[in-house]
Amino acid sequence: MSLTTDPTLERPEVKPLRMKQGNARRRQNSDRVLRVILTFLMVVASIPLFLIMYQVIQRGAGVISWEFLTAREFPPAREGGGYAAGFVGTGIMVTWAALMAVPTGILAAVYLVEVGRGPLAAAIRFFTDVMTGIPSVFVGLAIYFLIIANTGFTFGAFPGALALGVIMLPIVVRSSEEILRTVPDELRQGSLAMGARRWQTTMKVVLPAAAPGLTTGAMLAVARAAGETAPLILTAFGNINIITDLFNVAIGAVPLQIYNGARQPFAPGIERAWGGALCLLVLVLTLTVIARYIGGRFNKIGNR
Amino acid sequence: MTTTDTPAPPGPQLAGRGLGRFADRAFALVLLGAGLSVLVILAAIVIRTTVDAWPVFQYQGFFSFITGTEWRAGFSRNEFTGTYGAFPFVFGTLFVAGIALVFALPLAIAVSVYIVHYAPLKLRTSLSYVVEVLAAVPSIIFGLWGLLWFVPTFIQPVSNWTARNLGFIPFLDGPVANVNYFHAGFVLAIMILPIITALTREIIAAAPISEQEAAYGLGATKWEVIRSVVLPRSFSGIVGASMLGLGRALGETIAVLMLVGGSQRYGFRLFFSGDTMAAHIAATFQDAAPETITALLGIGVVLFLVTMVVNMVARGIVWRFGFKATGDAI
Q1: Residue (of A177, A174, A180) closest to A209 by Cα position
Q2: Chain A partners of B38 at a C-beta cutoff of 8 Å?
Q3: Any idea what the CATH number is for the domain that residue B112 is in?
Q4: Could you read off the pLDDT of B99-123 as tens digits, one per residue?
Q5: Which residues of B touch A202 (CB under 8 A)?
């Protein structure tokens, strides 16, 4: 009555699993080949992007000096001088654009999350998406015809800031909406149960809870606006003098000065363009990295 | 045990007194106003530009404005004297964006697949982080780098070699201009690569895990899982993402402007020095006479229509796919 004699329990001959059968070798080889190809493509894709970083830093670093940050630009063939006009102009326009677009965008997002229902909210959401897709040069054209061609304003910081604000607005709305949706409903219910009004709940509970995420969205929008060139050609127009007026004087911006410096033949102007590019890159990447850092911390807290 | 007096039901106090009663309604109105501002701004932009561009469409005829091949700017203040056929720019826009997409899309998919499925675990988050940060680099920097370093030292020799050795193919023949469709398209491809990758990575990462595990359980290799589960499942999402990238490429101005040439003509050659809609607007706006500015607005309206169609189709696909394309990447 030994078990081994039972024919039903006789195990069929099984080849070891490690032994390749049929087309296994071919399949495994093609898998390996693909891994190599994909790794190679990853490296290829990252080379130019890191080359940009490297070269902007390498060629721009020598240009940055106190003078570059504080002096206005000289004619392209002359050494020295700097992008102060651009820094001031970009600063003014981006600040005003942010002051217009960030509160409006956050309130619009609050509307979409807390109040808006039905087709109107759906339409706002859809057209916000549409707005993100508008080419920035068309925004410039539109602001030119809305503000400059048909009213008393001329080129200057105000139309420039409006154009940048229109570019920022949908970015702020989209990211804020996403963030506000992650605020847990318990917070709202708790606040309402304590007797707070809706507006108190929103202003004192929901918005503070979402503040880090909202900051992330706003900073990414600012980073985007600071680097825009095309709309400013049509609205701010550019100026090598330092302008602090908001209205009716054409004003400079860093991207505009880079553009003008890069397309003329004299070495000093080209060098300054690299310097300006480095400043712009540092500004935009700093904003982006800080924004992502804050956003990342917010996500961790939200997921806890 | 003393019986406590049950307090009287609060009654009217809960409804609030004074102005407080209206606070919520006022607040809702403020919010509504902010929400409506998006619609108002968009409507103002669309109406103003259409109304102001109308004269040039009337003068030239909308159809011949798009298909006309001669663009001769006029210098008049109150009337139209030039010839405005924007086809060279329409063609250039589509051509350059097409070149950019041909290079960027396969690479973006490959990079996304690598990041999601092949990269060492430790690298995965930092790689997708780097991709998102790179997507924020302003286009003027790509333009500067392309014009002053990348094109003269790298792409120009490649183009020259191609035109010399493969020039018998009509599409690739010389002469190679310093700035041309191909150079603009290639730098544009580098620029939109992180933007598309940020989207496709998200889409590929969202392919259903259970189906992938089922395929692994059936003995599929990693590549087979990617080919037969991940990619088919992400197909419509990738189509949507690439169309969003196309929308971005169509509207891109400054990097293209610095590299495309600005010749007001067109040619079905890779190395032809042409112009795109956005680039032509930005390049000639500052020196244009009033009638030409109106004509440039006409180009702008056409560009707007094209990008809107592309974007709406893309959003439709991506939405149906259940994705919210993150705002900052686009």
Answers
A1: A180
A2: 108, 124, 127-128, 131, 169-170, 173
A3: 1.10.3720.10
A4: 999 999 999 999 999 999 999 988 8
A5: 27
Residue B242 lies in a domain: yes
SS3 A67: helix
* Minimum mean pLDDT range among B6-15, B49-58, B71-80, B138-147: B6-15
Q: Which residues contact B176 (CB under 8 A, 6 or more apart)?
A: B156, B159, B160, B163, B271
ipTM: 0.89
**Is the CB of residue B306 less than 8 Å from the CB of residue B313?**
no
Q: Is A235 helix (H, G, I), strand (E, B) or coil?
A: helix
Please indicate whether, in this complex, the C-beta atoms of B254 and A129 are within 8 angstroms of each other.
Answer: no
B35 belongs to a structural domain: no
Total domain count, chain B = 1
Mean of the pLDDT values across residues A191-215? Answer: 91
pTM of the model: 0.90
Q: Give me the phi and psi of B74, to 5 degrees please.
A: -95, 175
Rounded to the nearest angstrom, the gap between the alpha carbon of residue B131 and the centroid of all alpha carbons in its chain is 17
Rounded to whole angstroms, how far apart are CA atoms A51 and B129? 18
In this structure, the dihedral spanned by the alpha carbons of residues B153, B154, B160 and B161, taken in order and rounded to 10 degrees, is 130
Confidence of residue B210 (pLDDT cuts 50, 70, 90): very high
Q: Which residues of A touch B278 (CB under 8 A)?
A: 135, 137-138, 230
Beta strands in B19-145 (DSSP E): 71-72, 83-84
Q: CA torsion B76→B81→B86→B88, rounded to 10°?
A: -100
Write out the two tokens for B76: 């008049």
Half-sphere exposure of A247 (CA within 13 A, CB side): 4
Segment 279-298 of chain B within 8 Å of chain A by CB: 281-282, 285-286, 293, 296-297
A251 φ/ψ angles, rounded to the nearest 5 degrees: -130, 150
Instruction: Read off the amino acid at residue A40.
Output: F
Residue B259 falls inside a structural domain: yes
- Retrieve residue A183's tokens: 């605020």
**What number of residues does chain B have?**
330
Q: Is residue B70 part of a domain?
A: no
Give the range of the structural domain holding residue B133, as residue numbers without chain letter. Answer: 89-280+301-329
